[in-house]
Amino acid sequence: MQTVSIIGFDGALASAITGVIDLFRLAGVTWARIHGEPPVPYFTTRLLTRNGDPCRCINGITLFSEGSWEELDADRTDLVIVPTIGAPIAQVLPENPDLIAWLGQFKGSSHGSSGQVQLASNCTGAFLLAEAGLLDHREATTHWGFSHQFRERYPQVVLTPEKLVTVDGHIACAGGGMAWWDLGVHLVERHAGSQVARELAKAFVIDAGRNSQAPYSALQSRRYHSDPVILELQDWLEENYCEAVTLQSLTHISGLTMRSLIRRFKQATGDTPTGYLQAIRIEAARRHLENSRLPVEEITRRVGYEDVSSFSRLFRKQSGLSPGAYRSRFRR
Question: Where is each HTH araC/xylS-type domain found (predicted)?
Answer without folding.
Answer: 231-329
